[in-house]
Amino acid sequence: TNSICFTRKTSCVRRRYREFVWLRQRLQSNAVLIQLPELPSKTPFFNMNNPNHVDHRRQGLQEFLEKILQDALLLSDSRLHLFLQTQLSPEDMEACVSGQTKYSVADAILSFASLNRRFPIEDEERKKGKNDADSDSESSSSGLGPSDDSISCGCKASPASEES
């Protein structure tokens, strides 16, 4: 991105439709006077194997993001930044924004941008249940510092995502 609003210049994040619903609800509750764009309709017979269904929904979600990124008030919402620049779940984003973690929003973005995991403390708790041989394979992605995974996740940025 070329926007000074974003901590990272590139990010690659996978999100489910329900996470977009969550984001829209949170943005709407924080910006009551702004009429947010609608998400693409959730069809009861959505078929992931149908490329037309998938492409139609993807285009609708992309248009939603492009519209909300044009509003300065919405750009000030930390949840939007975490949504676009980290793999954190909605619950983890809420915890981070509300100060329930020892990490700031900026720390989360810089450290967990393209990692498909939660905060290190949760990783450590999960590792305690494994034996030493199993946890060795995950040691390269633990800690707060950026890793090679956080720099490049193998996604090719589209022109629309470069403007986000």
TrEMBL record:
Check the record and name the InterPro entries matching this protein. Answer: PX_dom, PX_dom_sf, SNX10/11
Q: Which UniProt keywords apply?
A: Cytoplasm, Endosome, Lipid-binding, Membrane, Protein transport, Transport
Q: Principal localization?
A: cytoplasm
Matching Gene3D superfamilies: Phox-like domain
Subcellular localization(s) per the UniProt record: Cytoplasm; Endomembrane system; Endosome
Instruction: Identify the GO cellular component terms for this protein.
Output: endosome
Q: Which residues form the PX domain?
A: 1-90
> What ranges does the record list as Low complexity composition bias?
138-152
Fetch the Pfam families from UniProt.
Answer: PX
The annotated region (Disordered) lies at 121-164
Q: Name one GO biological process term.
A: intracellular protein transport
Any one GO molecular-function label of the UniProt entry: phosphatidylinositol phosphate binding
Write down what this protein is called.
SNX10 protein
Organism, scientific name: Irena cyanogastra
